[in-house]
Amino acid sequence: MRLSVRAELDYSFAAPTDLLLQIEAAAIPEQIVEDSSLLLPPCAHVARVAAQDDIGERIWIRAEGRFLATYQATVTIQRLLADIATLPSVPPHMLPGETVAYLMPSRFCPSDRFRTFVDAEFGGLEGGALAAAMRDWIAGHFSYVPGSSQSDTTAQDSFVSRQGICRDYAHTLITFARAAAIPARYASVYAPGVEPPDFHAVAELFLGGAWHLVDATGMAEPGAMAKIGVGRDAADVAILTAYGCAEMRAQTVTVEALGGAA
Amino acid sequence: MRLSVRAELDYSFAAPTDLLLQIEAAAIPEQIVEDSSLLLPPCAHVARVAAQDDIGERIWIRAEGRFLATYQATVTIQRLLADIATLPSVPPHMLPGETVAYLMPSRFCPSDRFRTFVDAEFGGLEGGALAAAMRDWIAGHFSYVPGSSQSDTTAQDSFVSRQGICRDYAHTLITFARAAAIPARYASVYAPGVEPPDFHAVAELFLGGAWHLVDATGMAEPGAMAKIGVGRDAADVAILTAYGCAEMRAQTVTVEALGGAA
Amino acid sequence: MRLSVRAELDYSFAAPTDLLLQIEAAAIPEQIVEDSSLLLPPCAHVARVAAQDDIGERIWIRAEGRFLATYQATVTIQRLLADIATLPSVPPHMLPGETVAYLMPSRFCPSDRFRTFVDAEFGGLEGGALAAAMRDWIAGHFSYVPGSSQSDTTAQDSFVSRQGICRDYAHTLITFARAAAIPARYASVYAPGVEPPDFHAVAELFLGGAWHLVDATGMAEPGAMAKIGVGRDAADVAILTAYGCAEMRAQTVTVEALGGAA
Amino acid sequence: MRLSVRAELDYSFAAPTDLLLQIEAAAIPEQIVEDSSLLLPPCAHVARVAAQDDIGERIWIRAEGRFLATYQATVTIQRLLADIATLPSVPPHMLPGETVAYLMPSRFCPSDRFRTFVDAEFGGLEGGALAAAMRDWIAGHFSYVPGSSQSDTTAQDSFVSRQGICRDYAHTLITFARAAAIPARYASVYAPGVEPPDFHAVAELFLGGAWHLVDATGMAEPGAMAKIGVGRDAADVAILTAYGCAEMRAQTVTVEALGGAA
After folding, report:
1. Do D243 and C181 touch (CB under 8 A)?
2. Contacts of residue D117 in chain B, CB cutoff 8 Å?
3. Residue among A61, A104, A110 minimizing CB distance to B236
4. Could you tell me what percent of chain A has a pLDDT over 70?
5. How far is residue A156's CA from residue A85's CA, in Å, rounded to a whole number?
6. Per-residue pLDDT tens digits for C65-104
7. Which of B93, B97, B105 has the CB atom closest to A235's CB atom?
8. Residue B244 predicted with pLDDT over 90
9. Chain C residues with CB-CB distance to A under 8 A?
10. Which chains touch C (3 or more CB pairs under 8 A)?
11. Residue C154 pLDDT more than 80?
12. ω into residue D196 within 30 of 0, thus cis?
């Protein structure tokens, strides 16, 4: 699958401000970035640093005044796909060291509080079958309601309110998975078919010895997502983090499936 | 400074349970582990994985029944020390990539909510002077009250209740620091002089281009702490994490300063 | 049903402290307090004020040093009982004014967050059938675990952790009921059969034009409970509230069913 | 002081919905409602019930479709005013029974968590002097930022974020006061000078044996406020509470000081 991606950010900074930008499709084996361009306004400082798990890059920028960033790329997705329901479980004591951090509770995913629920609701299931049941539980119990959550909404809040947007679906699935000792991380992605068009976010679960993208909203397919970055939750992979006052004026995202080799 | 360290954990597991144990002083350049021994009961499975930032190791264990672990070591501390109040600040856009994750809010450190407070209370200060002011603010406003916090107490809870134990002091300092764009992580350590004797925890702040241990409780000195591990907050470096039911029967920690080369 | 009730509180106050004590079975039409005695130590000040909804009394006390209070009473319960599942609903717009406060969220019952859950889980049910379904849902999904909650645990916390003690069961039922526009209050009671023996707490729901006691723990029967007081939640009807430092040394409660006219 | 008050609510209800409306200036001794009119659309059901503490009325309405309510009134304020800093304290054990409920924590005012802070920050002060210090602390540490809080923001959230609107200022002052054993309730009012023009909310503290309005935002004077109703916090005195889906289309409030007898 080939994707054509375009994103425009239009911000304004009243004073010189440090920004962290993470907006580009990551150049990693599972997806080939064929061509890409990132246009930034003249800035006092621009520096690239590796992003979490070496998936993609974060860009440090020091900016002032109007800030218009335009990114576009063509990406060919060639990740291995699997029916997650069939994947075997990995017992915790056999988990690789680099996945352990993704067992821990994080800012928006307080998995330490969900063990009883997960045991009671999904007891008896394991591995991929368990992950699929969790995904389906969320899909069946949540409503997708734009505007129903805020930037500090946690999975505990969403579990109670039973509504949210992609980040909330992802946070809840990650929280459930960690409570069942399945490593789970948050992936910021580009995907076609997201309604309304925007950046998208899904969970990525460690099953059968590898990471697998799982979208509890059902809006996107793992074979048609371009990863921007991963982290413990939304706190780690914000598109733009400003260390100071920022005014968002506009933001547009367009993702088009070009077809092509899967 | 040389430390003699001894810890005994006495747990019981009714069913076969996966454990994550992180109890040994890390073998890293800033501290030499001269001798050490870790005695574990016969277990179905024991595997070591690198811990966070490659500081120390986590041990995966599958255990059942009585679980008695005894660790002892002699550690020579030779870390570079500094008067943190004099350290220069590093502007966010010049931070190394590996420190960026420690700017983000985490489970017990919701730094995203503290920017206004930090700006208002500490505005005008930077770098080490700012960090020292934050440490002193906590020391001056908090009371050390064993039993006043639980395993899910956050820095927001502690900020309101104004009391806690070492983990709460560390979480609050980490939260303040991140809100001011200073990378901050949580260090689990052995230190003499902790009252009552127990594992200890402090903040570690990235100042002047390096990490510096800072103890807002005032109980321990950076030159006399043996690091066990680091993480975003207490969720990452629990001494023992059980994926199942655990009963803690007893836990004792002894740390003795042997003196010697600083 | 006649109950023999006895409670002993043993506290200690290092400095002169204002206390609010609410420990006596209320003298109200639905229960006859045949005989009762409350023994207090000599105190600087004792004053009785009517408690919430004029059900029982609160006692203001100014005490210092050792504080030993002993209460005993014989109470005949003669409340009207009903199978709550059969009670009709009262549409909100026909609710009496004095019940309206019990529709509102309170400290431990954030019912404003539970509307979506309640609609989704119990949609289609009304009045007593709805209340019974909520009670049964809690009984079926929660585990009664002494020590699993703290004094500031909310119904939202319990809903996630799926465990608690009588106050948590009551808070959760109250929260569900209010979210469905059924007035619900918290009743502090004496009841036989509570294990371990202690003060007990249940929900009281306004159904079919009257208040009905409902115990989601299943430990006590409405016909065998002596009401101490009611409130919006546990915050309103603590047995003892101290405005200063209090040390609880011991507390014992004994409730015996004497049989007799129902 | 005479006030001319006008409020228009424009809502829409897709299905028949029960509403609770509390929008009229209360007819109570401290303020004379000289003339008033409330225009409602034809509704299936309209019933008045006494509001909390018998201050004003709540109106139950069953409505469907477009709902346009227009209220206007002229109110003469003749409440007794005092310099609150000079008012004596009432020791808790001498508080009248009807004020006791206003010592308890509530949904948005978790005063149980603030005792340590209040003791540390305001220790040594009592009664009116304490209340004035609390009011001034909030005025000095908070910023008035429209849009910075949501409908479920608590005083704990505001204490950390240090910003909010009138409800948040009132909640924080109420929380502080209750933590110091001063009864405190929430008053929904009309007041001139509110920017932007809207319904207003302030704290009302029980000092020197009577209730006194205190506005920590500094926007309104007790002698120029027309009370709509009181409650434990904003949960109790919402202008409009809908038991079902509501769409707010527009809401306008105009309050004009006509001068006249104070």
Report:
1. yes
2. 160-162
3. A104
4. 98
5. 25
6. 999 999 999 999 999 999 999 999 889 989 999 999 999 9
7. B105
8. no
9. 113-114, 116-117, 120, 141, 143, 156-157, 159-163
10. A, D
11. yes
12. yes
Question: For residue C253, which of C202, C189, C178 has the smallest C-alpha distance?
Answer: C189
Residue range A117-121: mean pLDDT, rounded = 95
CB contact under 8 A, D92 and C49: no
Tell me how far CA of residue C226 lies from CA of A30, C214, C262, D255, in angstroms: 68, 13, 13, 51
Q: Which helix (H) or strand (E) holds C179?
A: helix C166-179
Longest dimension (CA), chain A: 57
Q: How far apart are CA B62 and CA B45, in angstroms?
A: 5
pTM of the model: 0.93
At A260, is the pLDDT very low, low, confident or very high (cuts 50, 70, 90)?
Answer: low
Cβ-defined contact of A114 to C160 (cutoff 8 Å)? yes
> Maximum distance among all alpha carbons in chain C?
57
Shortest alpha-carbon distance between residue C252 and chain D (Å)? 25
**What is the rounded CA–CA span in Å between residue B26 and residue B225?**
11
Are D18 and D60 in contact, with CB atoms under 8 Å apart? yes
Q: Is the pLDDT higher at D228 or at C42?
A: D228
Contact C156 A161 (CB under 8 A): no
In the numeric block, the tokens 């897709």 are attached to D14
How confident is the model at residue B89, as a pLDDT? 86
CB contact under 8 A, D92 and C60: yes
pLDDT tens-digit profile of B137-166?
A: 999 999 999 999 999 999 999 999 999 999
How many CB atoms sit inside 10 A of residue C10's CB? 15
Q: What residues contact residue C195 under an 8 Å CB cut-off, 6+ apart? A: C219
**Interatomic CA distance for residues A175 and A180, integer angstroms:** 9
- Chain B contact set for A243 (CB, 8 A): 92, 181
Query: Which one-letter amino acid corresponds to residue A197?
Result: P
Residue D123 token pair: 């220790």
Question: Above 90 in pLDDT, residue A43?
Answer: no
* C-alpha–C-alpha distance, residues D182 and D198, integer Å: 28
